[in-house]
Automatic annotation (TrEMBL):
This is Small-conductance mechanosensitive channel. Coiled coil: none annotated. The lineage of its organism: Bacteria, Pseudomonadati, Pseudomonadota, Gammaproteobacteria, Cellvibrionales. It comes from the Bacteria. It is found in: Cell inner membrane; Cell membrane. It is a multi-pass membrane protein. Belongs to the MscS (TC 1.A.23) family.
Length: 265
């Protein structure tokens, strides 16, 4: 009990030092974040200087941590003379290594939580290791793919962009009113509240044959709304076309040709 009281008393004596250290760390973090945002408003963070900006401000924050640790160590009586220079030099060396070497190291172009497609597997990334990538598919399966296979395969990352395009390929009867079909598709997409106004929805005629007239319609939505919006648009399209007299969906057709066999003379 006496030992516990001694430890608590010793920690209480360092209370002011702990509060001051936390204040310096939090204040430094906020200052670095504000400076980074100011610099980002001048230099586009997605441009060619993005990596240099992140490394620079990361190094500044690391130096704030190093200085805070050295001051705290000196305050409690630890020998820190001559350590400031090597510590700052170490931070600079790590920053240089991070800037020049890390970008060239092989890595997968996604992080846990991203929705990706690797070959024919689509789902949410749950884990990434040096040996395998774990993907949870939308039907509840857990798929383990060797990391080497992932790196050698085409990868679609649906989470890297904020917006995604919903596409509708529609076939109507060749004799139907194509312009009415175009305007109807535009009305359906414009009426959906999740469809973005910019870029605007569009409809194009991609072909007309004796069997069908093909239209290609698309609209842009937020990435998270892609599945639900596509479902809503298809259902709205079905209902709208069902009530139209001059427009109807084309049905598969099968043509059978018969010829009379030649008769012998």
């Amino acid at each position: 009990m006496q030992e516990l009281k001694a430890i608590v008393g010793q920690l209480a004596g360092y209370g002011e030092l702990i509060v001051a250290g936390l204040a310096v760390i939090v204040g430094g973090m906020i200052a670095v974040l504000l400076l980074y945002r100011i610099a980002s408003s001048i230099v586009k963070p997605g441009g060619k200087y993005a990596r240099a900006m992140k490394v620079f401000f990361g190094a500044i924050y690391a130096m704030v941590l190093v200085v805070t640790i050295l001051l705290a160590a000196q305050r409690i009586g630890l020998p820190v003379e001559g350590l400031a220079g090597p510590a700052i030099l170490l931070v600079l060396v790590i920053a240089v290594i991070f800037f020049f070497i890390v970008p060239f190291l092989p890595r997968v172009p996604f992080i846990p939580g991203n929705m990706v497609q690797v070959k024919d597997v689509i789902g949410i990334v749950e884990a990434i290791t040096a040996y395998q990538v774990v993907i949870r598919t939308f039907d509840g399966q857990t798929v383990f793919i060797p990391t080497a296979v992932v790196m050698a395969s085409p990868i679609r990352n649906f989470s890297t962009v904020p917006q995604r395009r919903v596409e509708l390929n529609v076939d109507i009867q060749p004799g139907d009113d194509v312009e009415r079909a175009r305007s109807l598709l535009l009305e359906i997409m414009a009426a959906n509240e999740k469809v973005l106004a910019e870029p605007p929805p569009a409809v194009f005629v991609t072909g007309i044959s004796g069997e069908r007239a093909s239209l290609f319609a698309f609209a842009w939505v937020e990435n998270a709304d892609w599945f639900s919006t596509r479902d809503a648009l298809w259902r709205a399209l079905r209902d709208a076309f069902a009530g139209e007299e001059n427009v109807s969906l084309a049905l598969p057709q099968l043509q059978v040709s018969t010829t009379k066999p030649p008769t012998n003379p």
